[in-house]
Amino acid sequence: MLDSRIIDQLRQIVGKDQVSAEKADLICYSYDATQQKFMPDVVVHPQTSEQISRIMRLANTEKVPVFPRGAGSGFTGGSLPTKGGIVLTTERMDKILEIDEENLVAVVQPGVVTEQFQIAVEKVGLFYPPDPASLKFSTLGGNVAECAGGPRCVKYGVTKDYILGLEVVTPTGDIITTGGPTMKGVVGYDLTKLMCGSEGTLGIVTRIVIKLLPLPEAKKTMLVLFDSIDGAAQAVSAIVRNKIIPTTLEFMDGRTLDCVKQATGLQVPDAARAVLIIEVDGDREFLDKQARRIADIIQPLGVVETRIAETPEESEALWQIRRSVSASLRKVNPDKYNEDICVPRSKVPEMIRKVDEISDRYGVPIVNFGHAGDGNIHVNIMIDKKIPGEQEKAEKAIKEVFEGALALGGTMSGEHGIGIAKAPYIPLEITPETALYMKTLKKALDPNNILNPGKIFLD
Amino acid sequence: MLDSRIIDQLRQIVGKDQVSAEKADLICYSYDATQQKFMPDVVVHPQTSEQISRIMRLANTEKVPVFPRGAGSGFTGGSLPTKGGIVLTTERMDKILEIDEENLVAVVQPGVVTEQFQIAVEKVGLFYPPDPASLKFSTLGGNVAECAGGPRCVKYGVTKDYILGLEVVTPTGDIITTGGPTMKGVVGYDLTKLMCGSEGTLGIVTRIVIKLLPLPEAKKTMLVLFDSIDGAAQAVSAIVRNKIIPTTLEFMDGRTLDCVKQATGLQVPDAARAVLIIEVDGDREFLDKQARRIADIIQPLGVVETRIAETPEESEALWQIRRSVSASLRKVNPDKYNEDICVPRSKVPEMIRKVDEISDRYGVPIVNFGHAGDGNIHVNIMIDKKIPGEQEKAEKAIKEVFEGALALGGTMSGEHGIGIAKAPYIPLEITPETALYMKTLKKALDPNNILNPGKIFLD
């Protein structure tokens, strides 16, 4: 329990209505998408960077940990208050401050919901590409902290590629600004990109300067069924080799397809053992030509069937198949470990074979889908935790999946981050020397270890 | 002078032929493109990261500063050995280690010359876009250290956008690896981007993992003469508003055009007071359509004349006009201060008017050209240093140019960096709090201040 004196001081900083130590409120801020729970002592809702600065100074004086939080939609526990203390949520800092149509730049507060921002810029013909699956509720501040990805990243890159500048409150309570609204800038260290993906451990983002693109005129979706995952993977390489970078190149393996068929009654030929959903965007007239070219390129690679959407409704129907995956999986088993390894694109088939082998060996169902275009595979280990021994098997399987990805030149996480969920596995990927460099940096910037302690590297 | 014992130890580390303390050799490593000179005590040519690690450990033990150097083509003194000590050049680490055509990734040593690398990847149908003006001699290691830009950055982004991973020797001599060959990765802090543009102060890059693109099928160049800089600037905005992002959008102001006319005898109508060189790339068939569309879009904006290249030779002739700028300027005055401010794209005309006003007020010729598409203006202050008082006037003018850019939401440098040339102006752009964050980081990672001391922030 936090001293009531500290809670009083927090009330003085942000106002009475913006602080709660009521149990019912605390519970709301105790979990994230990992379904793990840690109770904070108090939740504060600051509305300005000055308030956040004062909170951080107080926390340093009193040695109370602070856990910044967006929507709490993260998959790895990055916002969980693992040591109690203060949950600092930016959800009430939710204003779009500027959309500069001339310079294709926007300025927002961190609590703006990703999809709301996309809708706002699309209204004026602009485009913010990053599209994490959580975009209906995740916030841009959280997206920056985790460096969120999504299906469109194949063509357009990840969150950090769109962040031009930030205002940040440092772990010790200074307010700093990084980058700015220009397309280029090399004055001092690139703290903007350092913050992106630092999981709320190096600073609290209070304002975000975002680069926008012109909204593509149109898009075209196609769903292609292949007789093997190798055919689908070769198709991805062949498309890229032909100088086409589609907006999305999503895949599902045979096991995922089985789940979807079973759950939704989707009618596909029995020969189909892998799916690619390919979307291209750009000039309307050019798209038809491009879709036909893609169909020609991939035809020899074991295509069982190709469906090209001719209307937005047909496109939506194709995407609905992809969206039904998560719900379908729940019918396999109630508990899901959702990992997101990333390997060089050409290694996807080999990785899927490894995962299938691990799945068979441990007798735990594992289904794979995700972003084939950038080698980012969502590996879903489906178990029933109520069955004794299942959790242990899943954990062993996860470790082997990570080791398998690393052996192929890959990484443990393409977009979900480390948080606490993957922190125990960090030594598999990061050498002691590299870890020391990172920890030295964190320690220098947060000498009292106040800001989101115990994330990425377990204390 | 460095103790001969230390020079002997360096010889033991890298071999006798890879160390020189001869004056003639030292002179070769005493200058860069700023034309300033600082003599080092010794030059070493390591060939492995292990050797560099040992050099850094020795330097820390002996408290000798180390100045890493690529080709020495920087404009801001980032590689100058301002405190004597060791110049560590990576020019003999010049191997392209891998070009992975399947995954569009290359791995190189830091001493590979930028253009040589571009030629090598283009041979296999791939593309490395960053194109600093120095590309015929600058090295990729130097490009990473400075985060080099170039004309193609409007469409394709800067060096850091292509760096996926690095091997780095830290200031204390550890060998660390950052990132990797995957398109996504969020494990730990993004040290890769932190190194990019850190001007050799946070680590010495020893291996670079580079993202490549498919080589565009074709390109098309057009040169457009406008009756005012405002027309040219409006043209840039209008093109982008029409969802076209050209590969390059280079501009020259009226004063630059005057220099080129005078020096080369270029024939253009007297009404021409600004030039845009626009290049688009991509699908051959699509390009003609796009070039015509651009011509239509910009026609109402004061176009005096449009020249569209129909052949590669005609394209080359148009680019020759742009390339003649630097030589033409030398005819105005012998000494050039080449600044590279960057402002939001829409502010370019206002910035040019400010610069013209500063030029007139101080009576020093200033000509502007550069990358209009991303607001990156090369401001060239032309003086004759032999004339008493000229240098002081130039320095006052530069400060006002920087202040002008910052007042428009811009930055002092889009691609040249800070080094020592702009270090005195850092407080204009970076707040004391932000500078403290950066300095804390440097101090923690380089406790003895051995690696490139006195750069970015004057000691």
UniProtKB/TrEMBL annotation, chains A, B:
<dbReference type="InterPro" id="IPR016164">
    <property type="entry name" value="FAD-linked_Oxase-like_C"/>
</dbReference>
<dbReference type="InterPro" id="IPR004113">
    <property type="entry name" value="FAD-bd_oxidored_4_C"/>
</dbReference>
<dbReference type="InterPro" id="IPR016169">
    <property type="entry name" value="FAD-bd_PCMH_sub2"/>
</dbReference>
<feature type="domain" description="FAD-binding PCMH-type">
    <location>
        <begin position="36"/>
        <end position="215"/>
    </location>
</feature>
<dbReference type="InterPro" id="IPR006094">
    <property type="entry name" value="Oxid_FAD_bind_N"/>
</dbReference>
<dbReference type="InterPro" id="IPR016167">
    <property type="entry name" value="FAD-bd_PCMH_sub1"/>
</dbReference>
<dbReference type="Pfam" id="PF02913">
    <property type="entry name" value="FAD-oxidase_C"/>
</dbReference>
<keyword id="KW-0274">FAD</keyword>
<protein>
    <submittedName>
        <fullName>FAD-binding protein</fullName>
    </submittedName>
</protein>
<dbReference type="InterPro" id="IPR016166">
    <property type="entry name" value="FAD-bd_PCMH"/>
</dbReference>
<dbReference type="GO" id="GO:0071949">
    <property type="term" value="F:FAD binding"/>
</dbReference>
<dbReference type="Pfam" id="PF01565">
    <property type="entry name" value="FAD_binding_4"/>
</dbReference>
<comment type="similarity">
    <text>Belongs to the FAD-binding oxidoreductase/transferase type 4 family.</text>
</comment>
<dbReference type="GO" id="GO:0016491">
    <property type="term" value="F:oxidoreductase activity"/>
</dbReference>
<keyword id="KW-0560">Oxidoreductase</keyword>
<keyword id="KW-0285">Flavoprotein</keyword>
<dbReference type="InterPro" id="IPR016171">
    <property type="entry name" value="Vanillyl_alc_oxidase_C-sub2"/>
</dbReference>
<dbReference type="InterPro" id="IPR036318">
    <property type="entry name" value="FAD-bd_PCMH-like_sf"/>
</dbReference>
<dbReference type="InterPro" id="IPR051914">
    <property type="entry name" value="FAD-linked_OxidoTrans_Type4"/>
</dbReference>
